[in-house]
Design goal:
eight-stranded mixed β-sheet, 2 helices, three-stranded antiparallel β-sheet, alpha+beta, Immunoglobulin-like, 160 residues
Length: 160
């Protein structure tokens, strides 16, 4: 009889879920907010700060990102240049560096100014990563998200 009574109690308990009486701690709430910020983070916005036509001098690129996203760019070569040639974009080889440069934080804003390239149609390409290790180069930092952003094209004309 006792076995039947216990069986009926346990089977009824299995059918009804127990109410969740757990109260989240401040640490759990903070971790949850940080996780939400990371999953809702967007890649950096990249714009060309100079005029659409550059006649000489410098061209500046501005990157902006949500500080909670921990977006980083390559510390060696932040902006790679691409030139419009024969109907397609061609990456222009750059000197770069020997490697080992730590990734650079974007947030909230990072401005990179370069000498204007030779005359022609150009755009900048920026490799980025989010959720990266801050003590490693971008290529080795095991980012949770990564990609390459490209600026709008701009024209470089010979100086007058």
């Amino acid at each position: 009889m006792l076995a039947i009574l216990l069986r009926s109690i346990f089977s009824a308990a299995a059918e009804e879920p127990a109410p969740n009486l757990a109260i989240p701690s401040p640490v759990e709430e903070r971790v949850s907010e940080e996780a939400e910020a990371l999953t809702s983070a967007r890649p950096p916005v990249v714009t060309v700060q100079s005029a659409p036509v550059v006649s000489s001098g410098l061209v500046s690129f501005t990157m902006e990102a949500d500080p909670r996203a921990a977006v980083r760019v390559d510390g060696c070569l932040v902006v790679e240049m691409e030139r419009w040639e024969e109907g397609r974009w061609e990456r222009v080889p750059s000197k770069g560096c020997a490697g080992g440069e730590l990734a650079v934080a974007v947030a909230p804003r990072l401005v990179v100014t370069l000498p204007a390239p030779s005359p022609g149609r150009w755009r900048g390409a920026i490799s980025w990563g989010a959720g990266c290790h801050s003590d490693l180069p971008l290529a080795f930092s095991s980012c949770t998200e990564s990609g390459t952003l490209r600026t709008d094209p701009f024209d470089v004309r010979p100086g007058r």
